[in-house]
Amino acid sequence: MRGPHSRPQCTPAHQAGALLLVAVTSLLTRLLSAPAPPPPFPTPGPRLPAAADHLRVYVYAEDEVDGLRVLLRGRDGSVSAATCLKGQWGTQVKIHQLLLRSRYRTLDKDEAHLFFVPSYVKCVRMTGGLTDKEINQTYVKVLGQMPYFRRSGGRDHIFVFPSGAGAHLFRSWATFLNRSIILTPEGDRTDKRGISAFNTWKDIIIPGNVDDSMVKPDARAVQPIPLMKRKYLANFLGRAQGKVGRLKLVELAKQYPDKTGCAYVL
Ligand SMILES: *[C@@H]1O[C@H](CO)[C@@H](O)[C@H](O)[C@H]1NC(C)=O
Ligand SMILES: *[C@@H]1O[C@H](CO)[C@@H](O)[C@H](O)[C@H]1NC(C)=O
């Protein structure tokens, strides 16, 4: 019975007590449910309740589609994921690994909202594991075996292209990936190509890979300026290649060594 007569008065002391109780309970809950170790690869993180309305991402397994392993490890399977963790192409590996451990990962394609197609193809190409022609043919072969890709015309499928070439790395991208979601660090590259593979309505600019040695607290290659003291934060990884913007960056880094912290331009 919750009528006005039976309800006890709620005094400020009651309110304070209730607040304290909430604070203590949540603190205890947090302490008791402390850091579970990350689940071993490739099991997804603890599942959220099925009824919860949250994002679910399916990650294709490398042996699930004929050709996917080639896009990850090269034609003879010799390019390792560890090799591909370095340089700008590291984002292809890191995003894949994060999604494998993510609690948003689902193993059920029918309940997935988005599909992630892993590929370390930039790295594989740079290390001689595949030629441009093979990359193109392999992508076409892989996509042709994906009914869920066909279902949406690729609209719910995500690809990472971690270098300036963007999706152009796959020569026939315009035919096959023009509706898919592309994550890439550089958008407009019409300086190099007739058309841009980047579409602001569906694609997303992501930060380039920051080398682990720059961020891992235990083995840092440089001492970065504390975040609080920074006005700007920028990261460039690549070669100057005589390009105006990049040369300017090198100049700025030399001019303001105390503000830029460090600059690696090869
Ligand atoms: C890519 O591969 C497909 C299938 O083999 C082929 O039809 C297409 O012409 C290729 N694209 C380019 C640009 O070579
Ligand atoms: C990609 O698709 C958009 C929208 O359908 C279209 O306007 C554009 O011309 C296409 N780009 C290429 C390169 O085919």
What would your notes on this structure say?
The chain is of the alpha/beta class. The protein folds into 2 domains: 51-205, no CATH class; 221-260, no CATH class. 34% of the residues lie in helices and 7% in strands. It has 11 helices and 6 strands. It has a 6-stranded parallel β-sheet with strand order 2-1-3-4-5-6, with helices on one face. Helix 8 links the parallel strand 4 and strand 5. The protein is globular, with a radius of gyration of 24 Å. The termini are far apart. Mean pLDDT is 80; it is low at 1-11, 16-37 and 262-266. The protein binds 2-acetamido-2-deoxy-beta-D-glucopyranose (2 copies). One 2-acetamido-2-deoxy-beta-D-glucopyranose is lined by residues 174, 178, 195.
Question: Keyphrases for this structure?
Answer:
single chain, 266 residues, alpha/beta, 2 domains, 6-stranded parallel beta sheet, 34% helix, disordered C terminus, binds 2-acetamido-2-deoxy-beta-D-glucopyranose, signal, glycosyltransferase
Alpha-beta classification: alpha/beta
Name the strands of the widest sheet in spatial order: 2-1-3-4-5-6
- Along the chain, the helix and strand elements come as HEHHHEEHHHEHEEHHH
Into how many domains do the coordinates divide?
2
Q: What's the average pLDDT?
A: 80
Tell me the Rg in angstroms: 24 Å
Shape: globular
Q: How far is it from the N-terminal to the C-terminal residue, by CA?
A: 76 Å
Poorly predicted runs: 1-11, 16-37, 262-266
User: Which kinds of small molecule does this entry bind, naming each only once?
Assistant: 2-acetamido-2-deoxy-beta-D-glucopyranose
Indicate the percent of residues in helices: 25-40%
By DSSP, the count of extended strands is: 6
Strand content: 5-15%
Characterize the main sheet: 6 strands, parallel
Total count of helical runs of at least 4 residues: 11
